Amino acid sequence: MTELSIRPYRPEDKPGIVAIIDSVYRDYNYSMDFEHFDSDLADVETTYEDAGGAFWVADDGGVVAGCVGVVPHGVDTCELKRLYVNASYRRRGLATRLLATARGWAMSRGYRRMILWSDVLLAAAHTLYLKSGFRAANETRAIDPVNPTSVERRFELDL
Fold this sequence. Notes:
The chain is α+β, with helices and mostly antiparallel strands. It has a domain at 5-114: Aminopeptidase. The protein is 28% helix and 32% strand. Helix 3 (94-108) links the parallel strand 4 (77-85) and strand 5.
């Protein structure tokens, strides 16, 4: 049995990442849209790394078990994006480890605040964010043209 590791994204990870996110979307009757809302996944290198951010995967012997990304959002703020864990790896602390990786990276680069947007239906994720020190803001948005019933809530964390 291999040890599950968190490592930087590689292009060959894309199918596994898309499969995890698509699975979650299907649970809520949402569809992926690589032209608009999910366009960051069409080119992870450009969206995250070339923009000054980072993207990681949880790797279990070549199987993508989860992912998370961070992008700059202003001078002292960064945005957490795409924290997803494969259903068969949930409730084992993997999301907490991915979040800690992103948080550590942000702090090491001098960011003072982290924000994120999460669909209001993702209650388990919200529990994780709140336990990790994030505050739920009153701000919501609906920006997904393919899934117009998707409403996201903003969360904030002082680093």
